[in-house]
# Entry
Amino acid sequence: MKLVFMGTPEFAVPTLAALAQSEHEVLLVVTQPDRPQGRGYKLQPPPVKKLALELGIPILQPQKLNEIQEDLQTLAPDAIIVVAFGQKIPNWLLDLPRFGCINLHPSLLPKYRGAAPIQAAIINGEQVTGVCTMQLDKGWDTGPVLLCREVAIDPTETAGQLHDRLMLIGADLVLATLAGLEQGIVVPTPQNDLEASFAPKLSKEAARVDWAKSSKEIANQVRGNNPWPVTWSTLQGETIKIWQAQALPLTSSGHQPGEVVAITPEGIEVATGSGKLLILELQRSGGKPLPCSAFLNGFPIQSGTIFN
# Structure
């Protein structure tokens, strides 16, 4: 097939690499404009652009897709592959390719439509997630599904680790989808909107710990917000980020949620609404993430201290 690829972040890179190595022809890569990053706010190309430059594929970086309508119509691709592009696909583009605009989405649709499906699956304690290919329509993640692949979530897996697994599995799924469409054996299946759920955009405020929740819920929150925005709380007037933690049963009573129950060689045990949270890795403002033992050397904590 003649393809146009639209994608921006690291999640999209394996799919572009797989397509470039396949029998398909990637005519053009469309990605977001370079953005200022880092302390010096220097313009940095998105990961997809870096790979496209290495592969020698032509690149366009429009602020809005309407700016390149004529370019895309001239190319007349058989399909447009969309992976975490970052812009809404306009209606005129949806019907341009004969196989449509094919999107790779990191959840088992219709579950977890929206901006943060990987994180939502972990935060909500799911044991299984996956990736799906779908034909884009006028809605947000509402188009008919083409293929799906289930993936078990490891009980200790972070959002970053799951992201890295799904982006590789997703690349293979896109190739399988294109092959199935060419052979006529992959048929678009409408989603059941009654079964849909939404994965909202992540925010730092939503990553704050509510110690009245169970230790399992908080441990899932820690995993789901790693590596961004990172779950946090306040202690002794300072913001503390929690990078790693695990749920424990509460073996003693009389502790309020957020109270430090014990300091052990393994970590800091904190009472929650149900059970205890064992904090393993944490970070002060302006510092770097540290194992609990190293953190306590510079920030002593005693039993009975309260996380706000």
The longest helix spans residues 159-183.
